[in-house]
Design brief:
The chain has about 375 residues and is an alpha+beta fold. It is about 35% helix and about 25% strand. The strands form three sheets. Strands 1, 4, 5, 6, 7, 8, 9 and 14 form an eight-stranded mixed sheet that branches. The chain has a four-stranded antiparallel sheet with strand order 11-12-10-13. Strand 2 and strand 3 form a beta hairpin. The two termini are about 35 Å apart.
Length: about 375
């Protein structure tokens, strides 16, 4: 059984003065949702996601060793970093990065030895209502792991990716599912070999051809700030009247998806995925305090998708994140018909008519 202690290094064999790396990491969309967590970003239930391809964060990490003889004592024992978003300083992101570095220092003891310049950008519109914390934290974790690998070149690939996912999780829970693989499981599940609460793992079982190159068109219903942050939402599961049943349901749904992925049964896939999306929002509506992140246009889109599917028998479905935007999921072989439907009937419900066409991808890439 792997424990967090396995990711605390004893010593490094090499030294590196300065350099830079650049990684891109994608967002992901959960099919079985994670909602509710324990201490140290441990999920209350397992989840599984499709890794996206086009919606990603590109992060360049430049690093230079501090000169300890001239460094001020105040900076010598502190984290030292500059943060740029799309080439410009971004002060309001800095507290989140500071907190992340504090959380991961035990696993990367070299962090205070360097000054870092983190330069990051997204391929999707900023504040488009697409979760950028998953892609952003995954990309930063990959860069930091590249530096650790330079300090310890004997590191195995398995260790590299497991630890990158573990670090990403400490920045944003779902970020651990953006590191590697097309279908990724996070959280212990009895029937999924290698699954762990500590990091995401590539789904190890058979996946039917129906799910290869699965498409995700993201309808941007509302690009504003969420009225309730995900962190607050997760915390509201602690005393939630339906929490225990929900956590059990996630295990059951993931269990069903194992055979669905193998058989390629799209009808059953749709039932699980849509039920999970609605259950996530039902948990929000029944917490105390309660809140609703869906907008009227979210419901209009859902009803239009149900009608279209019923009329045409085309296996298109929706899922939702913790927000108002709708992810329209469908197999590649019906893409032409579904995109025409989106243009004809759904674009009018999107803010400024905006939507993003995406598909399953493979995870983080060294650029």
């Amino acid at each position: 059984m792997i424990s967090v202690n396995d990711f605390i290094p004893s010593k490094y064999t090499h030294s590196v003065e300065k350099g830079n790396f650049q990684w891109s990491a994608p967002s992901n969309i959960a099919l079985v949702k994670y909602w509710g967590k324990k201490d140290n970003q441990i999920p209350a239930n397992p989840s599984v996601s499709f890794t996206l391809n086009n919606c990603k964060t590109i992060t360049k990490l430049a690093f230079a060793k501090k000169n300890t003889s001239t460094a001020l004592s105040t900076t010598k024992n502190d984290f030292s970093f500059d943060l740029l978003f799309e080439g410009k300083p971004k002060e309001d992101f800095k507290p989140k990065i500071q907190k992340f570095l504090e959380r991961i220092e035990i696993y990367l003891p070299f962090l205070k030895d360097y000054h870092f310049t983190i330069d990051t950008e997204n391929t999707f519109p900023h504040s488009s209502g697409i979760a950028s914390s998953a892609s952003g934290m995954a990309a930063l974790a990959m860069n930091l792991m590249s530096l650790e690998k330079a300090l310890n070149p004997e590191m195995t690939e398995t260790y590299f990716y497991q630890k990158a996912s573990l670090l990403a999780r400490l920045g944003s829970g779902s970020a651990c599912r953006s590191v590697k693989g097309q279908v990724v499981v996070w959280g212990n599940h009895a029937n999924i070999s290698g699954s762990s609460d500590l990091f995401g793992v590539e789904f190890p079982n058979a996946i039917h051809a129906n799910f290869k190159n699965y498409q995700d068109t993201i309808l941007l219903v509302d690009k504003g700030e969420k009225q309730v942050s995900s962190t607050v939402g997760h915390d509201l599961m602690h005393n939630h009247p339906f929490a225990e049943r929900r956590f059990a349901q996630a295990h059951e749904n993931l269990d069903q998806l194992i055979s669905i992925f193998e058989s390629g049964n799209l009808e059953e896939f749709i039932k699980i995925v849509e039920s999970e999306a609605l259950t996530l929002h039902a948990m929000m509506m029944t917490s105390m305090p309660y809140f609703i992140l869906m907008k009227p246009n979210t419901l209009e889109i859902i009803n239009a998708i149900w009608k279209f599917r019923n009329d045409t028998k085309i296996p298109v479905c929706f899922t939702l994140d913790a927000g108002a935007n709708v992810h329209v999921l469908y197999p590649e072989n019906v893409a032409i018909a579904v995109l025409q439907f989106i243009k004809d009937e759904l674009v009018g419900y999107c803010q400024n008519g905006q939507y993003i066409c995406d598909e399953i991808g493979n995870g983080a890439v060294l650029n």
